[in-house]
Amino acid sequence: MEFYTKETGEKNNFLALALSSRKNLCIHPEVSSLRFGKEVDGKCHSLTASYIRAQRHSNPNQPVCRFYEEFDAVGRQVPIPSGIYNLDDLKAFGRKKGWCPYYLARYSILHANIVVYSYHYLLDPKIADLVSKELAKKSVVVFDEAHNIDNVCIDSMSVNITRRTLDRCQTNSLLNETDAAKLREEYRRLVEGLKEANVARETDIYLSNPVLPDEILQEAVPGSIRTAEHFVGFLKRFLEYLKARLRIHHVVQESSPQFLKDIYEKVCIDRKPLRFCAERLRSLLRTLEIADIADFSAVTLISNFATLVSTYSKGFTIIIEPFEDKTPTIVNPVLHFSCMDPSIAIKPVFERFQSVIITSGTLSPLDIYPRILDFRPVTMASFTMTLARTCLCPLIVGRGNDQVAMSSKFETREDFAVIRNYGNLLLEMSAIVPDGIVAFFTSYVYMENIVASWYEQGILENIQRNKLIFIETQDAAETSMALEKYQEACENGRGAILLSVARGKVSEGIDFVHHFGRAVIMFGVPYVYTQSRILKARLEYLRDQFQIRENDFLTFDAMRHAAQCVGRAIRGKTDYGLMIFADKRYARADKRGKLPRWIQEHITDGSLNLTIDETVQLSKHFLRQMAQPFRREDQLGLSLLTLEQLQSEEMLQKISQIAQQV
Amino acid sequence: MDEEPERAKRWEGGYERTWEVLKEDESGSLRATVEDILFQAKRKRVFESHGQVRLGMMRHLYVVIDSSRTMEDQDLKPNRLTSTLKLMEYFVEEYFDQNPISQIGIITTKNKRAEKLTDLAGNPKKHIAAMKKAVNSMCVGEPSLYNALNIAMQTLKHMPGHTSREILVIFSSLTTCDPANIYDLIKTLKALKIRVSVIGLSAEVRVCTVLTRETGGNYNVILDESHFKELLMYHVKPPPASSSSECSLIRMGFPQHIIASLSDQDAKPSFSMSHLESSDGGPGLTLGGYYCPQCRAKYTELPVECKVCGLTLVSAPHLARSFHHLFPLDAFQEHPLEEHKGDRFCQACQGELKDKSVFTCPACSSVFCTDCDLFIHDTLHCCPSCIHRQGTS
């Protein structure tokens, strides 16, 4: 920032800020100490909602959040001074001024030049409506790290309902003891002004409707659920119906029209009132002046489901499973309302904003994204990395020293020889790679099996002579502890191995810079669990709607996760790392071709289908090469450009060559 | 898995891709690259001139040799330990040749422990003998960087401030087993102005990177044996002294070598002071020797610190040899052979100039071949042609 001011010689009014949930931004001493996001939201709401604040006028003992009060009083007049704020900066600024950072950020979005926030604020219809509604049409939307964008889209539109959800609805006070007088009062207000005033909008955001076509919003709430009593009855009926549906012993899969027809026949619920369910619940909760909305999450979920199922007839499917996959004997019915089509969630974004950029380090193959997201790209380009030295070394290990092929494919995954060879590979690598190694398995179950087997064979013991071993588990606290210790071991020269799972927390969010990850080993190809019914339904939908073959999509999905995993090791031009793909199948052209270009171009024919011994030799050589002093001057002109070089004609030509237009 | 038997045979050893270095030229010939490699190898040792900087002439250097399990690796032939010790012998000789008034000591570390092989001393023979013995020792367990550095530090911290305190670690393992936080030790080393350099035999280890960066040393990882030697030789040259180090005048004695012949009646054989303590016998009684000008104690070898009065005893050639570090010979200018006009003969060896490049002395503009250039810079430290002119004028 200062640099720019100095270079351009003028003060620029530039505002960039990050927005996150209340949990991350709250500075209220009591509220911020809560652990779960939902609790924080609820508590915050109970301190800042408009009617609470209205009550304070009459009753000064009513607790309110002083930060919000302060912000509301003065914060709006003065815009936040220009600069770049991350979450901590915002909090610090808020503390200094005594303003609530969350609302400050929410408010400042309107005049900020750059806003950074999570995908959900834009894609999830429930939130997007509140946060991103006022963004200008001319805004440029950049989805960074967008290799998983289709899954995010789908998640934001899907609803899972278990029996517990329903039970919690049942016990909810709203549906049991309803104060008749209050309900009547509510109805009176509703009639007075169907359109809610926008005044309280900002704070009363706790529930909002899923994406509804505008015309539905314009319509009036249908008569059958207009009175609150009727609506509560309506919800109860709907709930009972869902409970009845969950009381099954076999798997049911149906489309939304089928579901609607069934519900009409069984409990006479029409499609139209269902659509308004979410909206209606929202206004009801507001007038009932319920402070803590956390209790109502289950009811909200149900009403959202009702609205979604009645709004969209295509692209969704309902799957009711009586058992979970892992425990096929215990009855634990789940209703998955899952979105098949990621383009539904992202469509409003494409329609609304002028330019949308989707980018990621591991976005490959490029052409599949337009197909699954259903858009026509203006331009597509993939860039390689310009490196002054080849700082990545992808190796595909296909065989053990005994020539037995290594693969995690289903038929051979229990094979003793394969497990032993995987163990030997890790053992050999642990002896020659300094500091940290990260190893990825395809699933938790597979990892447990293999590690148990290694233990029996004594491989684990041998590895431990070289390095310490840490394991990622499904427990977040345990994993972060393991990570911390892992980094400590790398730092002080003991060396460590982290065993983790592709698609896990480690593979997505955590970077292993420099010595924290000198080598990444992928044990097997991380395919998704193909027996899942949701996945099957989605594959079917992709085949029918977009003509994408199941196998293509599965490979694409597996390879993007593999690339994501191995990409953890290299986080900069001065960094270096080995990438070891330990599965015979990676050598095949269809797999290899789906890796990002910057990895692909370093895979030579010589590094395909290696044995463990060859891998060790190549790695040793690579590590020694990379340990040679690497100075800034070496990069100059190659991966680092001075201003003159950047402006020279020759370089511009070279750059346009590198950007491969697709 | 049972332990693999020690690989003894060449054909059982690891895979090597020796052919990868070679690249064919357009005609498919390898000659150009081979020649290039040879030429590069020759030229590599041309040093970057320090210019006029203060150098630490009196050095106290501890060499830590890792003798852990990994030293049995056979990527250096016959194995890492033997190869290292052989190079170290050469290093010790070269070190005393170039730094006659310095001292060296050797520490080994294995099995999570560290022990002194030899104390700080100025006698190359003792170190070399100790290392010859060490070749046959077993390499077991893990090294302990902490313990090794700690031992070295205990001795080095008592060394006077005007000398340079250095530790050179030859680190083969990728792990270290430390009893305490090594980062505290690094801070202490930094405070004591001890320079730690590391030569890695396998790959870059984080803790060494930090160690050398903090203490101002070098960290290098070897590529192969010749590169290893080159990196070791880099440590022969005295490092630039830090500007904060003390300056002091040092008393030195220049004893004369008195040779008494057996025929001389007055001559009595006597013991050398330096042999009094060593129990290995050696040449006990000798006739002649160096006598300390202050206390008349007798020594058979120089340089040494007098056991009686603590005076540093050196000979004039020793000091003279250290002298060239202060005034290094400027690097010669390199030109391609085609551009060179005039005689195609090297000024020094009178041989025909055949290599790709020729070298010109900037002072007297005489022309030398690559071999002579290396010889002049590494051994002579002065341009023969310049000296010749001085003599004639």
Automatic annotation (TrEMBL), chain A:
One of its GO terms (molecular function) is 4 iron, 4 sulfur cluster binding. The keyword Hydrolase applies. One of its GO terms (cellular component) is nucleus. It catalyses: ATP + H2O = ADP + phosphate + H(+). The keyword Membrane does not apply. This is General transcription and DNA repair factor IIH helicase subunit XPD. It is an enzyme of class 5 (isomerase). One of its GO terms (biological process) is hair cell differentiation. Belongs to the helicase family. RAD3/XPD subfamily. PROSITE patterns: DEAH_ATP_HELICASE (PS00690), HELICASE_ATP_BIND_2 (PS51193). It comes from Pygocentrus nattereri. It is found in: Nucleus. Keywords: 4Fe-4S, ATP-binding, DNA damage, DNA repair, DNA-binding, Helicase, Hydrolase, Iron, Iron-sulfur, Isomerase, Metal-binding, Nucleotide-binding, Nucleus.
UniProtKB/TrEMBL annotation, chain B:
GO terms for biological process: DNA-templated transcription; nucleotide-excision repair; regulation of transcription by RNA polymerase II. Residues 60-202 form the VWFA domain. The keyword Transcription applies. The keyword Zinc-finger applies. One of its GO terms (molecular function) is zinc ion binding. CDD domains: vWA_transcription_factor_IIH_type (cd01453). Gene3D superfamilies: von Willebrand factor, type A domain, Zinc/RING finger domain, C3HC4 (zinc finger). Pfam families: C1_4, Ssl1. It is found in: Nucleus. Keywords: DNA damage, DNA repair, Metal-binding, Nucleus, Phosphoprotein, Transcription, Transcription regulation, Zinc, Zinc-finger. One of its GO terms (cellular component) is transcription factor TFIIH core complex. It comes from the Eukaryota. Its main location: nucleus. A zinc finger (C4-type) spans 292-309. NCBIfam families: ssl1. Belongs to the GTF2H2 family. This is General transcription factor IIH subunit.
